């Protein structure tokens, strides 16, 4: 009778073989999609990278709100728009996107609260030229 460690290794082998089979099927499916689009002469390059889509949506959320928001609220609104922020902690990753958008965004004094830097410009100075 095999020892427990041998049984575990056999179970791991069976599990890995199952994963290999699933991955092989996925690879085959992707190859078929690529072959189809090559036949059609089409390129599938997206117009926006996922990170750029998130950044654009964050700026839109802040502009639409017109006041500072906590990163949790920004994340909640992204999710409501159907935009998924990847990673183990999506709320923290939303904060990282907000930070990466500097100088367009800035922390607003309180932990996790962000605003647009354009809101710092006095209304009288926006869009006016001196005579």
List the helices and strands and how they pair.
Elements: H1 4-40, H2 50-65, E1 69-70, H3 71-80, H4 90-100, E2 105-107, E3 113-116
Helix pairs in contact: 3-4
Per CATH, the architecture of the largest domain is Orthogonal Bundle
CATH fold-level assignment of the largest domain: Arc Repressor Mutant, subunit A
User: How many angstroms does the end-to-end distance come to?
Assistant: 95 Å
- Please state the CA-atom Rg, rounded to the nearest Å: 24 Å
Q: What's the pLDDT, averaged over the residues?
A: 83
Tally the helices.
4
For the biggest sheet, the summary is:
3 strands, antiparallel
Number of strands: 3
Unreliable stretches (pLDDT < 50, length at least 5) are 123-131
Domains, number: 2
> What percentage of the residues does DSSP assign to strands (E)?
5-15%
Strand order of the largest sheet: 1-3-2
Strand/helix succession: HHEHHEE
Q: What gross morphology would you assign?
A: flat
CATH C-level name of the largest domain: Mainly Alpha
Helicity range of the residues? 55-70%
CATH superfamily membership of the largest domain, which one? Answer: Winged helix-like DNA-binding domain superfamily/Winged helix DNA-binding domain
């Amino acid at each position: 009778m095999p020892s427990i460690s041998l049984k575990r290794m056999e179970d791991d082998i069976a599990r890995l073989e199952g994963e290999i089979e699933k991955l092989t099927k996925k690879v085959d499916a992707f190859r078929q999609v690529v072959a189809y689009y090559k036949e059609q002469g089409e390129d599938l390059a997206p117009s926006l990278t996922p990170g750029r889509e998130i950044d654009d949506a964050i700026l839109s959320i802040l502009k639409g709100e017109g006041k500072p928001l906590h990163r949790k609220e920004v994340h909640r609104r992204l999710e409501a728009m159907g935009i998924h922020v990847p990673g183990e902690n999506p709320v923290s990753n939303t904060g990282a996107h907000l930070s990466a958008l500097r100088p367009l965004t800035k922390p607003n004094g309180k932990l996790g609260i962000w605003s647009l830097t354009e809101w710092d410009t006095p209304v009288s100075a926006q869009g006016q030229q001196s005579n």
